Amino acid sequence: MQPIHSNVLLISADHVTCQWLGLRAFLQVEPDLCVLADIPQATEAVRVATNQHPDHVLIDAAVGGIGLVPLVRQVRRVSPASRVVVVGTKDMLRRDTLLQLMEQGTRGYLLWEGLDGETVVHCLALVREDDVLAGHRAVLDELLATPERRRRPRNDEPALTDDERAVLSLLVGGWTQSEIAEALHMSEVSVKRTVTALRATFGVRTTNALCWQAGRLGFVPLPQADDEGGTGTTPFPTRTGQIGDRNRSHR
Question: What pLDDT is attached to residue 138?
């Protein structure tokens, strides 16, 4: 994965935690990121988003003021190109909240449990590639438990083309669409169309849900939980498992 060379706006909670301070410190020294500001007030954060149009907006789900979902809505209204990523606890990111965040265009969902700075940087890079990342098994389970996510494909055994099978296998391996295009000698437009067709075939809206649904139906192996709590940085393994190595290579 290429360096992301992005600017990011941080929106913290009223009571800043040690976890947030550590995350902010890590992002501030990341050479390919520019932290514009760390703001605990929703009104001021929206003003900065209006003026700066950050590439990414990282929000603590415990943010006060108008609340998480209304804040995301306002940020997306004034800066629609910004990729919003939310980090919180399981209690904060329940199903109803997740669906509301999805409706507002939130791209990434991370849990504090087991989270480190390199995972956040990897998440920012992925969502900039137009992927949606559920950065924890528990978050994905919440999304897939909704009626919309429980829908079966249009056919019990969908017929996939050779290109669709090749693209699907690489998606499950954690490859981005641009990487898939290069590996399969396809245009990025063709890969994007193939992914869109796969989502329609399997009756889902996101790449993570596509991989999970394909796994449930036996098209690809289902992932194993990393520990007793089912945690992990992504619901399916990233390519070669070298998230940290890729990030460190940017330094």
Answer: 53
